[in-house]
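Final report, Chapter 2: Outcomes

The project's central promise was a pipeline that accepts a single protein chain and returns its three-dimensional structure in a standardized token representation, suitable for archiving and comparison. That pipeline is now operational. To close this chapter, we reproduce one record exactly as it appears in the project archive, with the input sequence first and the structure output second.
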Amino acid sequence: MDSLDMRLLRAMFPEQIFALTGIDPRSSVQELSRAAGASRVTVRRRLERWKTQGFWKGAVVFPNPDLLGCSLMMQSFTLDPGRNRDRLEKSLVEIFQPAFLFQTEHVYNPVFFSESPKVTVRRQGAFRAAGTGTANCPPIRVPFPPSTAEFGPRDWEIIRELRKAPGLDWSAVALAAGVTVRSLARRVGRLMSARALFFFPELDFRHSPGSVAWVGVLFKTGADTKRLEAELARRYPDLLPVENFFPFECLLPPSLRPSVGGSFPFFLPVPTASAGDQLRRDIGMMPGVAETLIGFPTQNISVPGPFDRKIEGVIARSGASA
């Protein structure tokens, strides 16, 4: 991936950080081009290339988990040497029923619903019994900003239709939900402003326009993390910060964990694997850096089913038309 790819990805996220709370799908090409520092023609062509190559798979809508009466948890697993990748993925889906799956080479991070800690513990036990992967740390609750709005029956119907519509066809969604396009845009805008509605981008890095690395920089205890993050952003202006809700230090040997006081994950384009090795060495020489982890992401996707079942349950209870 080149500099424009990364600037364009940053421009899609409201806070220019790759976060589960996602993007604003209403952003126009003109707005993206202004934020990315490129012409509208260039941005439009680049977006089309992403879709043609299969890197950009679209955006998936989902409500704030609080409105569904549950939380989202994230678990990290490393594929055991010699284990079958297909078997691991099948076990993940069957046991955790993930709503999202973040995958980096041999590390899988399913994000799943959890109504209680006991449910999560049972799932972990079942996964260990399957013998396909090793848990890197206990499950982590994914933090979401509290919503300041509640959905009415019509809002839930709109959510359902948005999840059905390929490419977020606003006209088709409005027709199916029985509202005008203008009313649909107004409702979506209101719910997004209230942090009740999010749009998560699905990316398949196996079809990205170039090689991109996931970099996790672990800072020493007591280090000035803000200064180090600013220095990294200055050195590597094409980096895309990743939401920092997962304790990446858990991937280190226990003997090194006490020396880690913070982490800074981000995506960064790298031309070759050797360039990734040099990147690790360069960052490792910065004062205050304890360790640099580098992997190559394969996909960040939503998994059909879990959200849809909960949404249908809410619709049934609210008395909205099926």
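Archive annotation: The chain has three domains: 3-64+147-206, 66-143, 212-295.
This record, like all others produced under the grant, will remain available to the consortium after the project formally closes.
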